[in-house]
Amino acid sequence: MGKSDAKETKEATSKNTAGSKDDDYTSEFDWIQIRQKIENYENIQEETFTSKLKRKFGENPLVPIGAFATMGALTIGLWNFRLGKKRMSQNMMRLRIAAQGFTVVALVSGMFLAATATANKGAFIPAATNPK
C-alpha cells in the first residue's frame, strides 16, 4: 500500500464519519415514526365477525349475495338429490354454477372499481407523472 493509497483511504474514512451524525439522526427519526405507527396499531380494536360482515357487505354487496345464492342452490340441489328428484337436483347444480360465476364476476369487478377509485383519489401517482 503506497502513500497515495493510504491518503485516499484516510479521506474516504473521514468522509464516512463526517456524515454519520446525519445518518444517526435520520435513523433515530425513522425509529420514532415506527414507534408511533406501532402505537397506532395497538390502539386499533379487533373487528368482530358481524362488523366485518357488515363492512364487506357495504363495500361490495354483490359478492355476499352471490355467495349466499351459491350456498342456497347447493343446499337445495343436495336436498333434492337426497330425495331422489334428479331433474330438480340437476337444475340446482346448474344454478349453483351460474351463481358461482356471478360471484367471481362481482368480486373481480369490485376489485377493479376499488382500484380505480383509489387511483382517482390520488393515492397512487405513477413515477412518470410525478411533478417533482
UniProtKB/TrEMBL annotation:
**Does this UniProt record's set of keywords contain Isomerase?**
no
Protein name, UniProt field: HIG1 domain-containing protein
Name the residues that span the membrane. 62-81, 93-115
Q: Compositional bias of type Basic and acidic residues: which residue ranges?
A: 1-13
Q: What Gene Ontology cellular component terms go with this record?
A: mitochondrial membrane
Compartment(s) of residence: Mitochondrion membrane
| Keyword line | Membrane, Transmembrane, Transmembrane helix
- Domain HIG1, by residue range, is 34-125
Annotated region (Disordered), positions in chain: 1-24
Which PROSITE patterns does the protein's record reference?
A: HIG1
Q: Which Pfam families match?
A: HIG_1_N
GO biological process terms, alphabetically, are:
mitochondrial respirasome assembly
Q: Which InterPro entries match?
A: Hypoxia_induced_domain, RCF1
